[in-house]
Amino acid sequence: MQSFPARLHVLLAREAPVGLVIRRGPSRQVCTLLWDRRTDRFTLGQWFKGRIYERRCDLSPDGTHFIYFAMDGKWSGLSKGSWSAISRAPYLKASAFFPKGDCWNGGGLFIDNDRYWLNGDGCHLPGRDSTRLHRDQVYRPAGGRGGECLGVYYPRLLRDGWVLTDRLSDGSTDQCDIFEKPLVDGWILRKYAHAQIGSPSGKGCYWDEHELVQAQSDLYLKQPGWEWADRDGPRLTWAESGCLWTASLTASGLAEPRLLHDFNHMTFERRTAPY
Protein backbone atom coordinates (compact mmCIF):
# COMPACT_ATOMS: atom_id res chain seq x y z
CA MET A 1 0.00 0.00 0.00
CA GLN A 2 1.32 3.43 -0.93
CA SER A 3 2.18 5.66 2.03
CA PHE A 4 1.99 9.44 2.13
CA PRO A 5 3.57 12.13 4.31
CA ALA A 6 1.55 13.63 7.13
CA ARG A 7 -0.96 16.18 5.87
CA LEU A 8 -0.81 19.60 7.48
CA HIS A 9 -3.16 22.56 7.68
CA VAL A 10 -2.43 25.63 9.79
CA LEU A 11 -4.61 28.31 11.36
CA LEU A 12 -2.92 31.59 12.30
CA ALA A 13 -4.35 33.75 15.08
CA ARG A 14 -5.04 37.28 13.84
CA GLU A 15 -4.19 39.14 17.06
CA ALA A 16 -1.60 36.91 18.74
CA PRO A 17 1.71 35.30 17.65
CA VAL A 18 0.34 31.76 17.81
CA GLY A 19 -1.07 29.23 15.40
CA LEU A 20 -2.71 25.84 15.45
CA VAL A 21 -1.43 22.93 13.34
CA ILE A 22 -3.90 20.22 12.30
CA ARG A 23 -1.83 17.12 11.53
CA ARG A 24 -3.48 14.17 9.78
CA GLY A 25 -2.12 10.72 9.10
CA PRO A 26 -2.91 7.89 8.77
CA SER A 27 -6.17 9.05 7.22
CA ARG A 28 -8.30 8.26 10.29
CA GLN A 29 -5.95 9.76 12.88
CA VAL A 30 -5.46 13.46 13.51
CA CYS A 31 -3.88 15.63 16.18
CA THR A 32 -3.65 19.33 16.96
CA LEU A 33 -0.63 21.33 18.09
CA LEU A 34 -0.13 24.87 19.32
CA TRP A 35 2.54 26.83 17.44
CA ASP A 36 4.30 29.63 19.30
CA ARG A 37 5.32 31.78 16.36
CA ARG A 38 7.80 33.80 18.46
CA THR A 39 9.91 30.79 19.42
CA ASP A 40 8.73 28.30 16.74
CA ARG A 41 8.00 25.73 19.42
CA PHE A 42 5.13 23.28 19.07
CA THR A 43 3.00 21.88 21.90
CA LEU A 44 0.89 18.78 21.33
CA GLY A 45 -2.80 19.07 22.22
CA GLN A 46 -4.77 15.86 21.65
CA TRP A 47 -5.17 13.02 19.17
CA PHE A 48 -8.47 11.92 17.69
CA LYS A 49 -9.41 8.75 15.80
CA GLY A 50 -11.60 10.08 13.04
CA ARG A 51 -11.59 13.08 10.73
CA ILE A 52 -11.36 16.78 11.47
CA TYR A 53 -12.42 18.82 8.45
CA GLU A 54 -9.66 21.41 8.58
CA ARG A 55 -11.26 23.75 6.06
CA ARG A 56 -14.30 24.15 8.32
CA CYS A 57 -12.18 25.15 11.33
CA ASP A 58 -11.11 28.49 12.79
CA LEU A 59 -8.93 29.90 15.57
CA SER A 60 -10.11 32.84 17.66
CA PRO A 61 -8.18 36.10 17.05
CA ASP A 62 -6.35 35.75 20.39
CA GLY A 63 -5.55 32.08 19.71
CA THR A 64 -7.44 30.89 22.79
CA HIS A 65 -10.34 28.95 21.24
CA PHE A 66 -10.66 26.50 18.38
CA ILE A 67 -13.88 25.75 16.48
CA TYR A 68 -13.95 22.57 14.40
CA PHE A 69 -16.10 19.99 12.63
CA ALA A 70 -15.32 16.32 13.27
CA MET A 71 -16.59 12.91 12.23
CA ASP A 72 -15.99 9.50 13.82
CA GLY A 73 -18.83 7.62 12.08
CA LYS A 74 -20.44 6.40 15.32
CA TRP A 75 -23.87 7.37 14.11
CA SER A 76 -25.77 5.88 17.06
CA GLY A 77 -23.61 7.57 19.70
CA LEU A 78 -24.00 10.81 21.60
CA SER A 79 -22.34 12.79 18.81
CA LYS A 80 -24.53 11.18 16.11
CA GLY A 81 -21.35 10.39 14.20
CA SER A 82 -20.34 13.98 13.42
CA TRP A 83 -20.38 17.24 15.35
CA SER A 84 -19.23 20.84 15.62
CA ALA A 85 -17.36 21.85 18.75
CA ILE A 86 -15.42 24.64 20.39
CA SER A 87 -12.39 23.80 22.53
CA ARG A 88 -9.48 25.54 24.20
CA ALA A 89 -6.60 25.51 21.73
CA PRO A 90 -4.75 23.28 21.11
CA TYR A 91 -7.00 20.68 22.76
CA LEU A 92 -10.11 18.98 21.37
CA LYS A 93 -12.20 18.50 24.51
CA ALA A 94 -15.42 20.36 23.76
CA SER A 95 -16.59 23.28 25.86
CA ALA A 96 -19.38 23.76 23.30
CA PHE A 97 -20.76 20.69 21.53
CA PHE A 98 -23.33 20.41 18.73
CA PRO A 99 -24.17 16.93 17.33
CA LYS A 100 -24.70 16.93 13.56
CA GLY A 101 -25.48 13.44 12.25
CA ASP A 102 -24.21 14.04 8.71
CA CYS A 103 -21.31 15.76 6.95
CA TRP A 104 -23.08 18.79 5.49
CA ASN A 105 -22.16 22.25 6.80
CA GLY A 106 -20.70 22.21 10.33
CA GLY A 107 -17.74 24.03 11.86
CA GLY A 108 -17.72 27.81 11.85
CA LEU A 109 -15.85 31.08 12.22
CA PHE A 110 -14.90 33.43 15.03
CA ILE A 111 -16.26 36.92 14.53
CA ASP A 112 -14.12 38.18 17.41
CA ASN A 113 -12.76 36.75 20.65
CA ASP A 114 -16.22 36.55 22.23
CA ARG A 115 -18.54 35.76 19.31
CA TYR A 116 -18.70 32.96 16.78
CA TRP A 117 -20.80 31.84 13.83
CA LEU A 118 -21.88 28.19 13.61
CA ASN A 119 -22.04 26.94 10.02
CA GLY A 120 -25.48 25.46 9.37
CA ASP A 121 -26.73 26.62 12.75
CA GLY A 122 -30.26 25.25 12.31
CA CYS A 123 -28.99 21.91 10.98
CA HIS A 124 -27.41 20.80 14.27
CA LEU A 125 -29.16 18.79 16.94
CA PRO A 126 -29.59 20.23 20.44
CA GLY A 127 -26.24 20.32 22.19
CA ARG A 128 -24.27 22.16 24.83
CA ASP A 129 -23.34 25.79 24.21
CA SER A 130 -20.42 27.67 25.72
CA THR A 131 -20.99 29.85 28.75
CA ARG A 132 -18.03 32.07 27.81
CA LEU A 133 -18.74 32.68 24.12
CA HIS A 134 -21.77 34.08 22.31
CA ARG A 135 -23.20 32.34 19.26
CA ASP A 136 -24.20 35.03 16.76
CA GLN A 137 -27.24 33.78 14.85
CA VAL A 138 -27.55 36.92 12.70
CA TYR A 139 -24.03 37.07 11.23
CA ARG A 140 -23.60 35.70 7.69
CA PRO A 141 -20.07 35.50 6.23
CA ALA A 142 -19.48 36.54 2.64
CA GLY A 143 -17.90 34.45 -0.08
CA GLY A 144 -18.85 30.92 0.93
CA ARG A 145 -19.64 28.23 -1.63
CA GLY A 146 -21.84 25.18 -1.09
CA GLY A 147 -22.65 23.17 2.00
CA GLU A 148 -19.27 21.56 2.60
CA CYS A 149 -15.75 22.87 3.27
CA LEU A 150 -15.85 25.92 1.03
CA GLY A 151 -18.72 27.44 3.00
CA VAL A 152 -16.23 28.15 5.81
CA TYR A 153 -12.85 28.04 4.09
CA TYR A 154 -13.46 30.76 1.50
CA PRO A 155 -14.89 33.31 3.97
CA ARG A 156 -11.89 32.61 6.24
CA LEU A 157 -9.45 33.26 3.38
CA LEU A 158 -11.19 36.50 2.41
CA ARG A 159 -11.31 37.67 6.03
CA ASP A 160 -7.58 36.99 6.46
CA GLY A 161 -6.38 39.10 3.56
CA TRP A 162 -6.67 36.81 0.54
CA VAL A 163 -8.30 38.18 -2.62
CA LEU A 164 -10.27 35.97 -5.01
CA THR A 165 -8.92 36.80 -8.48
CA ASP A 166 -10.24 34.11 -10.83
CA ARG A 167 -12.35 30.99 -11.11
CA LEU A 168 -11.51 28.11 -13.41
CA SER A 169 -13.72 25.14 -14.23
CA ASP A 170 -13.53 21.94 -16.22
CA GLY A 171 -17.10 20.84 -15.60
CA SER A 172 -18.85 20.41 -12.27
CA THR A 173 -16.34 17.83 -10.98
CA ASP A 174 -13.13 19.84 -11.46
CA GLN A 175 -13.11 23.44 -10.26
CA CYS A 176 -10.32 25.73 -9.12
CA ASP A 177 -10.51 29.15 -7.48
CA ILE A 178 -7.45 31.40 -7.45
CA PHE A 179 -6.64 33.55 -4.42
CA GLU A 180 -3.75 35.98 -3.99
CA LYS A 181 -2.09 37.68 -1.03
CA PRO A 182 0.57 40.43 -1.30
CA LEU A 183 3.96 39.76 0.29
CA VAL A 184 7.13 41.91 0.43
CA ASP A 185 9.26 43.37 -2.42
CA GLY A 186 6.46 43.09 -4.98
CA TRP A 187 5.90 39.36 -4.46
CA ILE A 188 2.46 37.77 -4.47
CA LEU A 189 1.51 34.42 -2.96
CA ARG A 190 -0.98 32.71 -5.23
CA LYS A 191 -3.21 29.87 -4.02
CA TYR A 192 -4.97 27.44 -6.36
CA ALA A 193 -7.88 26.05 -4.31
CA HIS A 194 -9.11 22.87 -6.00
CA ALA A 195 -12.51 21.21 -5.61
CA GLN A 196 -12.13 18.02 -7.58
CA ILE A 197 -13.56 14.53 -7.92
CA GLY A 198 -10.78 12.19 -8.98
CA SER A 199 -8.07 14.32 -7.38
CA PRO A 200 -4.39 13.24 -7.51
CA SER A 201 -3.29 10.37 -5.30
CA GLY A 202 -2.83 11.46 -1.71
CA LYS A 203 -5.14 14.46 -2.07
CA GLY A 204 -8.70 14.89 -0.86
CA CYS A 205 -11.47 16.37 -2.97
CA TYR A 206 -10.45 19.80 -1.60
CA TRP A 207 -6.74 20.55 -1.96
CA ASP A 208 -4.47 23.53 -2.56
CA GLU A 209 -1.27 24.27 -4.42
CA HIS A 210 0.73 27.49 -4.57
CA GLU A 211 3.14 29.65 -6.50
CA LEU A 212 5.11 32.83 -5.89
CA VAL A 213 4.71 35.60 -8.44
CA GLN A 214 6.90 38.67 -8.93
CA ALA A 215 4.46 40.85 -10.84
CA GLN A 216 7.01 43.46 -11.88
CA SER A 217 9.29 40.98 -13.64
CA ASP A 218 6.79 38.25 -14.57
CA LEU A 219 8.80 35.77 -12.49
CA TYR A 220 6.88 32.69 -11.39
CA LEU A 221 8.14 30.21 -8.80
CA LYS A 222 5.79 27.24 -8.84
CA GLN A 223 5.47 25.35 -5.56
CA PRO A 224 3.23 22.36 -6.32
CA GLY A 225 4.24 20.59 -3.09
CA TRP A 226 3.04 23.36 -0.77
CA GLU A 227 -0.27 22.13 0.65
CA TRP A 228 -0.62 25.19 2.91
CA ALA A 229 1.17 28.55 2.79
CA ASP A 230 0.70 32.01 4.26
CA ARG A 231 2.45 35.20 5.29
CA ASP A 232 3.61 35.32 8.91
CA GLY A 233 4.69 38.90 9.47
CA PRO A 234 7.76 39.55 7.28
CA ARG A 235 8.39 35.87 6.58
CA LEU A 236 6.70 33.20 4.48
CA THR A 237 5.67 29.88 6.01
CA TRP A 238 4.46 26.74 4.28
CA ALA A 239 3.71 23.03 4.73
CA GLU A 240 5.28 20.47 2.44
CA SER A 241 5.72 16.70 2.76
CA GLY A 242 4.65 16.66 6.40
CA CYS A 243 7.03 19.45 7.43
CA LEU A 244 6.57 23.11 8.25
CA TRP A 245 9.09 25.52 6.71
CA THR A 246 9.87 29.21 6.71
CA ALA A 247 11.99 31.60 4.64
CA SER A 248 12.28 35.29 3.91
CA LEU A 249 11.75 36.78 0.47
CA THR A 250 14.24 38.98 -1.35
CA ALA A 251 13.82 40.90 -4.57
CA SER A 252 15.37 37.97 -6.46
CA GLY A 253 13.47 35.13 -4.82
CA LEU A 254 13.12 32.88 -1.82
CA ALA A 255 15.97 32.85 0.68
CA GLU A 256 17.34 29.62 2.17
CA PRO A 257 14.41 27.74 3.76
CA ARG A 258 14.54 26.77 7.43
CA LEU A 259 12.80 23.69 8.77
CA LEU A 260 10.52 24.55 11.68
CA HIS A 261 9.26 21.05 12.46
CA ASP A 262 8.95 17.58 10.93
CA PHE A 263 5.56 16.07 11.87
CA ASN A 264 5.95 12.81 9.98
CA HIS A 265 7.09 10.53 12.79
CA MET A 266 4.32 11.32 15.25
CA THR A 267 2.13 8.42 16.38
CA PHE A 268 -1.19 8.24 18.18
CA GLU A 269 -1.18 8.66 21.96
CA ARG A 270 -4.04 9.14 24.39
CA ARG A 271 -3.91 12.52 26.07
CA THR A 272 -6.27 14.29 28.46
CA ALA A 273 -7.08 17.98 28.21
CA PRO A 274 -6.06 19.96 31.34
CA TYR A 275 -9.60 21.31 31.83
Oligomer: single chain
Strand content: over 45%
* Cα separation of the termini: 39 Å
Please report the number of helical segments: 1
- Number of separate strands: 23
Largest sheet: 5 strands, antiparallel
Keywords:
single chain; 275 residues; mainly beta; five-stranded antiparallel β-sheet; 4% helix; 47% strand
Can you walk through the features of this model?
The chain has 275 residues and is mainly β. The protein has a domain at 161-265. The chain is built from one helix and 23 strands. The strands form six sheets. Strands 5, 6, 7, 8 and 9 form a five-stranded antiparallel β-sheet that branches. Strand 16 and strand 17 form a beta hairpin. The radius of gyration is 18 Å and the shape is globular.
Q: Which secondary structure elements does this structure contain, and how are they paired or packed?
A:
Elements: E1 7-12, E2 18-24, E3 29-36, E4 41-49, E5 51-52, E6 58-59, E7 65-71, E8 82-88, E9 94-99, E10 108-110, E11 115-118, E12 134-135, H1 150-159, E13 163-169, E14 174-182, E15 187-196, E16 206-214, E17 219-223, E18 228-232, E19 235-240, E20 243-247, E21 249-250, E22 253-254, E23 258-262
Parallel strand pairs: 11-12
Antiparallel strand pairs: 1-2, 2-3, 3-4, 5-7, 6-7, 7-8, 8-9, 10-11, 13-14, 14-15, 15-16, 16-17, 18-19, 19-20, 20-23, 21-22
